[in-house]
Amino acid sequence: SSSSSxxxxxxxxxxxxxxxxxxxxxxxxxxxxxxxAAVRRQRAVFVDNTSYVQSLECTGKHLLFVRxxxxxxxxxxxTLRYFYDRNTSVQQFAHVFGDxxxxxSHDGYETVTAASSEEHFRDVFGDxxxxxxxxxxxxxxxxxDDMAVVEHNMHDKVNRAxxxxxxxxxxxxxxxxxxxxxxxQSAARAVAARDGKLYILVDEYDRFxxxxxxxxxxxxxxxxxxxxxxxxxxxxxxxxxxSLRAVVGPYRSFVTGILPLxxxxxxxxxxxxxxxIDHPRFADMLGFRVDDLGTLLCAMRFGDARRVLDDDxxxxxxxxMKRFYNGYRFRGGSHELYNPTLSVFFLKALNSSNxxxxxxxxxxxxxxxxxxxxxxxxxxxxxxxxxxxxSCAAGGREAAHCYARxxxxxxxxxxxxxxxxxxxxxxxxxRSVDQNTRASKQYSLALLQHHGLLTHVPDADVSVRHVxxxxxxxxxxxxxxxxxxxxxxxxxxxxxxFVVQPDAARLVxxxxxxxxxxxxxxxxxxxxxxxxxxxxxxxxxxxxxxxxAYPRVGVRVLSQQxxxxxxxxxxxxxxxxxxxxRRALLLELGVVRVDQIDFTGTNVKVDLSHPGWxxxxxxxxxxxxxxxxxxxxxxxxxxxxxxxxxxxSKHEQLGEYAASVREQYAERVRAFAVVxxxxxxxxxxxxx
Length: 688
Known about the structure:
4-stranded parallel sheet; alpha/beta; about 700 residues
């Protein structure tokens, strides 16, 4: 682990820009910042990673860079935008980059001011900066089970970006409302007509694809994969980008995301695969270092009294941050890194609340579990669905067991074939070949690493072909403990009996064992990101894990298969040779999260918009636990619905699904709507 004095070093002060010149002024934080010009304009602090800009330029023209969620990728993309945009004025360039590392790397940089001429700027910085037509694409579109809706949303997002580019550069080209790829080609031709250079920046290229992967995997496969009769918009977008070389000549592109997985599934990895950035020189490009935090804590003044922390207090605060936020390492890196969004979240809370500061200064590491909920930022937490997706993979159960042992401290690290960290296909992870689940397990561990649930261990005793991975920090352990327990939960007993003779009480017990009140921490349904897909993945993963342990039980588990005009959630059916003896259990699942409940008029007074609302989880649990079944169904939700309304809608969907299942698999079908409400489960059977 890294160790450093909390005092500020000269090298760290050079990295931390925007510190107040007057000690009486506050340190300004730009939480979740994604626009560098706005950060500099607000005089907010900024950890300067611009020294990597020209290294990226020399590495290649088409680059893919992945990091865990909220690790500063959008701010990096914004940095490239302002550095290369031909419409960035000399005045704006001097304001944004004048004191940064990328400027200091040029002799005479200090002579370039807002009043400098274009000729003088070029004499100092050369021809590349401020010379491109920059197209910024953000693919964080809304997802849906309807592929046509997702495709429309993506085309709309791209077209809006192109409309902005057209106005920004006064380029003469048409935007095709129905086909953004045609619009993109038109934009490239307009740039070529001016003998211009094009730079395409794609931020979070896989954000919506990841949502589809977890929420609607059947749509995900159709959305990205080649060879489908339907359109594959992700594939089409990047293949269009690839074709632009024939229009505008050698252009540049820089793509960021969380996983290299979608880029492989869309079958355009030949364009990016050899330039997928995993070189050691970029391992430390994003993230805060311990000296950066020491510099910030030295500059901060707390409360009305403008309190300054002494050396021991700063050391203590850094020790807390180190246990909870530190430990991220990327292959070949020389620093343990802190998640920047989490760090700013914590420092802003520390700066705004004397109560929180005093609590941190009094905190003892033996009480870490009590502090986890207030140290976590819901915008950064890995979705529960990541572990549940892993648990559904052919080798995911074994991967989940390894991860559980890491979380519990039983293993120091696990070994992973380094090749598995490169672009791979979802199908490769989810399915086994000839019942060999080893590759699936390795890809499942790689998925956890890309999401930040695992990280590299330096100097581990492994072969050159392997890397060692472990859990990065205490916060990850505490927040993952319950989810990983769900993913590897014990079997439900006699699965065949569960299908042949289902009943509501057994279903309630089964679901509550996954999602009821745990011994420590908040239930999964208290997480504002928890969705029906996570519930479905957990249940399907558990049932399939049981089948792998008992393959002769004579039962098959299916999910997200088409039935009529929709897709059912979970189907378990027997495989008897005699059709008349076959039985099927059909489940339609629903989730009512705690943040969806309208507590108006109850004795629960909780501000769910406040980051510390989970302090009141026991009060909510007591409220829900004290309701009868009838009272629970009558609970009102935000937006005017009730729990009963959610249950009814799931119940109604079962009719069409059950008829289709009866035709395909078994004459005797028992169908249940199952809705999780906080820590409670309600079930209603659909009559045959």
